[in-house]
Design goal:
By secondary structure, the chain is of the alpha/beta class. The protein is built from ten helices and five strands. It has a five-stranded parallel beta sheet.
Length: 170
Amino acid sequence: MAKTKIILDADVIIHFAKGEALSCLPKIFPNYDYAVLQTVYDEILKPTRIQLDNQIQYLKNIEKLPFEPKGEMLCEYAMLSSELGKGESACMVYCRYHNDVIGSSNLRDIKDYCSKYQLTYLTTLDFLYYAVKHGVMTVNEANQFVKDVNAKDSKLPDTDFTTFISTVLL
């Protein structure tokens, strides 16, 4: 039986590349396979693409999957991508029809669709929370990750993981 996949959107990949932790990402949920759809892969620019290619080709802990929707999936993708990004649209449609998990921090685009179809999604902060919880990162490393990513022109909530983790655990 195939494992459930976490289908990564570009924003999560970019965050983990900027946080110099892309190689840690697949370690956070080792019981899942990690994948990037070709549509999302095409959105990723150098130097992030170089890091992603290393994960795909050498470490083999992220898989690149074709995205060739047909029939109902194609109609759904066409409708979504006319209003939203192609990558987010591809991830949502793929996960809906394959019962997989979306890795995306673009909540504005994905949240309603995921709620409507009861799709599980993980944001960058969710990944960091579980990285700390599962011992893949320390609280200090997660805090530094957020600072590094924000310093490199990405936008993550300025979160103190000591506080964040204690509020989640309540």
